[in-house]
Amino acid sequence: MTKIIIRQKSAWKLVDLREIWRYRELLYIFAWRDIKVRYKQTILGILWVIFQPIMTTFIFTFFFGNLAKIQSGGLPYSLFSLSGLIFWLFFSGSLQHASDSMVVNESIIKKVYFPKILLPLSSVITGLVDFSINLFLLLVYALMIGYFPRLIGLIILPFCLLLTSVTAVGLGLFLSSFNVKYRDVRYILPFFIQLLLFLTPVIYPLGIVSEKNRMIMALNPMSSVVELSRSVFSESYGLFPELLLISIVSSFIILFFGLAYFRKTERFFADIV
Description:
Number of domains: 1
Distance between the termini: 33 Å
């Protein structure tokens, strides 16, 4: 007879990496299931992934680029907005799916033990598939209009992706835990994301903001991600080191508090979900 001993986890251990590694196959299964469910019984299938950034870029270019004449730092406004949009859509999509991951998987949580952190993580991994497609779309479009990515993009793009993922995981862990007890999250979050879009320099360059306000906006890691992504196509978008440092610190603080809150509430999920 196999004896299973369940011990209480250390209060100081925010995340058990060895346990996540042990359940890595389950993480892949969750991610693959989410991908299949997302495109099941859709007419256009994977084309829906590129429909959103294309249409959003078209609308932004028409209203903010052509009508409002918002500066784009020497880049065509369509490329200016699309380069920021692909990271923003990855962040917002991952956040929405991660926040709902516990409620959607209620039946699994109540039946069997597994590290619950796998559910929000799988949402971010699923978002990486859409991001990869949109990144390819961005590079193809840039080449079509005569803008070649700079070699430094090999460093900038992975860094931006890492910073976006860390921020999405941190907020996703917090919101998924909060959503278990307070179901208002699914109604408030779309408004919050819409508001945050205008507080992130997706439709305008960070350069038009005053120095004091730039420091405040840098507390939102996506501000630095969006602005830095444009430097792949233009040297004029080099970010100030102090702003980037603020965003990096802010991102990891968000991750820390997300992990801490998730760790604190995890043991109650099966009872109240």
